């Protein structure tokens, strides 16, 4: 067989100059198509989304047949087009409009045919009853659809054709399109069985090259009776009447390509005239006589109506050609997914668009002189709304490897019904229209363009940077928080991100040590003059390009995978035996693995803080299961497990959103903004009016909105990973106390509560006293020279690492821009002097000692050095990644938006999430701590301390 790729090179021209540029255009057009569907739904009466075009069916049958002629010309014998071959076919006949209007209204008519060759192969043929398209290309097609969206009366249609369309495509193009439409719809249609249908766009026909096809009625078919045109559905009734007594038969013909001038592939508005390329009969499509009024026929019609036809559901040898057809793949997939409730479109109200432009510019100008956090609360909240708009527009970079040009594909397998109501184990099918989005193995995205500089990997020396600027001199506490806040964020990061590493002994990073220094890279190993640790595995890119993309071995979704695992085998292993919905616990604690580390979803870098969090939420899962068993005795254990997993995951997301984050970013504006994210704005008419005028989507909490990826496939990003490097939160020293009398139990160093030692510690101390000990003590402040010394010599997977050096090296090697470029990319002014970063003379002196210029400053160092806004636990630059990604993690997730509802979670489950928080979780599993929790603050604020009882003037535990 000839190389079918030659036709792409010879006959096809890509808009923008490349398949990838054209794909980006088509993705934008696909989003516009979904908006057209929404407008058409509002204009129609059905209330549900219909097809963007061809919304009203006249016939849907599953028992048609396509038979190829015995004398099919030799040149046209290819693939499934074999002499005498017969295949089952599904046929849909319809009006072309995007709204369901009476059949007598002037309109085009269409046919869609699915020819089933085998379980693995089928071919969708789509045609309309006019030989040319009103549009030359996809851009014109979408412009026309937008102009006519929602037009269901003559005045609206006239306005669309005479005003909207010329504004979109220009007067001359609109005139040509209007003439084509008028010529096509002027024809009176009395029977869809007597119409000829043309493909209008070309397809490949194996070795024969490009063809257009048509379906024309077989001469001798019974004439139609005089139609009752006042009947709004007379075309369907005419077909039903006809099929009672006779078959409806069409002849399949093809017209072969001659040359680009007379039979163009790219221009769908040019007719392939029969005088230039005669239609050659190759087969017959037969709709057998039948009674369409039977229950069986009506059920079949309903199934046909649920189908999504797409010309790209075919094979490479018969793939569609030309701009219009290439656009149809993205547009039809989006339209079908939108109609089937698998993909969503959120339209910005016109008032928000119009008012947002001047207000956004006002805040951009204002922020040159007054940062957002120095404005009054209401103004700062609006300022943040517009900052997030800018970040969404400019700082969501798609790193997915997309198909360009489009490829032929089989008809997609229907979504497993179980995945509509339960999270998958590996994060697949959260977005039902893009199953792999955010799943385990999906690449990290980017908020800033990667800056991959191998020449600067070791400049300045990362070990020197660490020892001078990161290493903890004296412990600097974050006095507004407790150590549970430090444990919590590591608990969350383990759910969100994990880069795959090469095994120890495999590919490694080697960091040269400063002169006179040595390092032991393995326990008991020899001293070496390099620091060595496992390299990250990058995603292979074409052309031997450097690895700037890395896969996440956790799912990107907020799905509690640190508790439940990121694959089915792990998840099932962690459940109680016998199919119970409960997670395995031993006397209330996590079961131990052979290495002394608990068995849980993610247990790397284990320490006592993680043990407390994992134990707490494993118990919480079991508590939800117990409540569901009582409330819903008929519910299966598997259903209880998946519902409880949804509840616990959502509760974790809520706690992080409305409790942990306002605790670490302790300002009124952030507290209001984050509560607005979850539950909508406070009952304040001024705030609500401002949001209604400028961003009405914020008038409800995100759980009451539709999923929105903001035009970029959802993923967590390398920049997000960078700003969550918060290791300074971890103290080196811990005092364990019992909560009854406040007595000291013991003093411990981090090494005493790390790895396998953590489980011995929590079993000895107990969960309640562990939580109390952490609740009354402070974590470290996220600042320079406060990196825990215990993590600078840390054993993991058989290697000894300095985590502060690893943080620096990973950020550099993953192409995250250095600090000055990082802040500039997030729309903050660049710094020109070290003094612009810090007002502390000693910090400035250390920075100058390490870096030759401000442009060399490492991202992590700059973020730690920056003076944060009042009340903030980390820098304003880091906060910009946060404000972008915090809402995105909620808004992209189907189970935290459109499927956050009682039908999925159960009424008890929704009530559990809405009424619970970190305090109630702690009280449920350690009720004796209730009186020690902060009264007017979150569980991450310092707890009330029990004054130790003294005996003879000394601590009773000493």
From TrEMBL:
Q: Which UniProt keywords apply?
A: Dioxygenase, Fatty acid biosynthesis, Fatty acid metabolism, Heme, Iron, Lipid biosynthesis, Lipid metabolism, Metal-binding, Oxidoreductase, Oxylipin biosynthesis, Peroxidase, Plant defense
Cofactor(s) the protein requires to work: Ca(2+)
Q: Name one Pfam family in it.
A: Catalase
Concerning PROSITE patterns, the annotation shows: CATALASE_3 (PS51402), PEROXIDASE_3 (PS50292)
Q: Where is the Catalase core domain?
A: 66-149
Q: Sorted alphabetically, which Gene3D superfamilies does this protein's record hold?
A: Catalase core domain (2.40.180.10), Haem peroxidase domain superfamily, animal type (1.10.640.10)
Which InterPro entries does the entry mention?
Answer: A_dioxygenase, Catalase, Catalase_core, Catalase_sf, Haem_peroxidase_animal, Haem_peroxidase_sf, Haem_peroxidase_sf_animal, Oxylipin_biosynth_metab
Q: PANTHER family, from UniProt? A: ALPHA-DIOXYGENASE 1, PROSTAGLANDIN G/H SYNTHASE
What is the official name of this protein in its record? Answer: Catalase core domain-containing protein
